[in-house]
Amino acid sequence: MSAAVGLIGLAVMGQNLALNLAEHGHSIVVFNRTSQTTEGFVAANRASFPVTGATSLAELVDLVDRPRRLILLVKAGSAVDDILTRLLELVSAGDVIIDGGNSLFTDTERRQTIAAGKGVAYVGAGISGGEEGARHGPSIMPGGNEAAWPLIAEMLQGIAAKTPAGEACCEWLGPGGSGHFVKMVHNGIEYGDMQIIAEAFHLMRAAGMTVGETAEAFRGFARGRLSSFLIDITAQILERLDDDDTPLINRVLDTAAQKGTGKWTVQSSLDLGQPATLIAEAVFSRMVSALKDQRVAASRVLSGPSGSVNVDVTDIESALYGSKIVSYAQGFMLLAAGSEEFKWDLELAKVSPLWRAGCIIRAAFLDDITRAFRTNSSLPNLMLDPYFTDALAGAQPGWRRVVAAAVTAGVPVPAYSSALGFYDSYRSEYLPANLIQAQRDLFGAHTYERTDRPRGEFFHTHWS
After folding, report:
1. Residue 178 in contact with residue 397, Cβ under 8 Å?
2. Enzyme catalytic residues
3. How far apart are CA 357 and CA 129, in angstroms?
4. CA end-to-end span of the chain, whole Å?
5. Taking the CB of residue 354, how many other CB atoms lie within 10 A of it?
6. CA 52, CA 60: separation in Å to the nearest integer?
7. Residues 325/393, Cβ–Cβ less than 8 Å
8. Residues 276, 265: contact at Cβ < 8 Å?
9. pLDDT by residue (tens digit) across 187-243?
10. Alpha helix (H) ranges present in 410-462?
């Protein structure tokens, strides 16, 4: 029995994507390094779906029709390299290998070159949506060897999430590691979204609201301009009670883990000279949260205000919305810089539509971003689109009141304050960087430009 596609890796994402493919009419053969997992998955689904199990990579490759389409859903890093090395000894020129995991984009570029040497088209396809998305329709962000796209487009777009208008949340993005780069930035924005939502919850609790009242507030947010998957699940989480009717959130330890894509986003922003400050604060906030024992000890030693804050929910909504705009503006700055640096020729107007359904950051807000870049493909910054310029102007008063009140009360709002700081810096004709550059020139002869001379002319002064 032959199959239309092979899938390697049967963790949660792999199993659900395999069922999604099968449900859409693709005969599929699967392989997992633990044979019991393969056997159990096939046995559990054989009656409903045309899924075949392979006992080895060689058997899987033999069972897939040529040109072969092989999907990897294994842990990023050395495991991908190991599987790729073994596959390249088995496949044929013209075959396609798709890495659907969260691989670092530079690794994808390297692997694409290796695969091309064997005549194999390698694709890095970021997949977002978690377990539910993989099963019923994820957002898929493919890039790499463009020769692969005609062979995989119908399959990937068929299983991808669809917008209310029926558009598939899957489109070819560009060469090299562009697909995984876009997925990395998506995940970085996801870190930021989660942090600004958490700060809203913290402020509500510090203002004396019950957990039930905070759930009601988030339900209200979900009916407005902040409507999104993450806002919806936040309300759902806050409504969940433990067995004794205590809000379950009160029993979740306040330490947040991370898998690395947020860190990669921040590292890439530094490499590309882009100020992804809100994403960076979101990553650092998780790191601070992990210092639980130190924080408990410090809370008994370090002084500060009471932590009781007087803020209005409407103002919190403004702070959340304004910070969200800044976060996406910074994310798209990073996408543009990456595209220029690596010669990917990314079309930003193609990126946001991929996130409108299926993925973790899906939100009504993305329709506005899509419109902005479709209206002006050379828009230098999302904040300069007239819609978002007006939205930021409207959010400012409440946003500033929230940050001021939080700082006065000693409630940490690193993402809100960082986003506001970036906004104020970006809109400032003057910044005190002239002093910094003069200092650099004094101690290191790094030179400086002058306001009374053309840009590009450099000067050095013996300051002392």
Report:
1. no
2. 183, 190
3. 9
4. 83
5. 30
6. 9
7. no
8. yes
9. 999 999 999 999 999 999 999 999 999 999 999 999 999 999 999 999 999 999 999
10. 414-426, 433-444
Radius of gyration of the chain (CA): 25
Q: Which residues contact 143 (CB under 8 A, 6 or more apart)?
A: 123, 124, 125, 172, 173, 174, 175, 176, 177, 178, 179, 180, 181, 182, 344
**252 C-beta neighbours (distance < 10 Å), count:** 10
Which residues does 69 contact at the CB level (< 8 Å), separation at least 6? 4, 5, 6, 95, 96, 98, 151, 152, 155
Whether residue 1 has pLDDT greater than 70: no
And the tokens for 432? 């005190």
CA gap 198, 451 in Å, rounded: 43
Strands (E), 28-176: 28-31, 51-53, 69-72, 96-99, 121-128, 139-144
Nearest in space to 365 (alpha carbons), one of 404, 339, 397, 395: 395
The helix or strand, by DSSP H or E, that contains position 85, with its residue range, turns out to be helix 78-88
For tokens 């828009």, the residue is 379
CA distances from 255 to 286, 293, 360 (A): 7, 10, 20
Spatial distance between the Cα atoms of 153 and 149, rounded to a whole number of angstroms: 5
Question: What average pLDDT does the segment 53-79 reach?
Answer: 94
With bands split at pLDDT 50, 70 and 90, how would you rate the model's confidence at 435? very high
Answer whether the bond into residue 397 is a cis peptide, omega within 30°: no
Question: Distances in Å between the alpha carbon of 396 and those of 315, 318, 348, 402, 417?
Answer: 9, 7, 26, 10, 12
Q: Is the pTM of this model over 0.85?
A: yes
- Tokens 């950051």: give the residue: 361
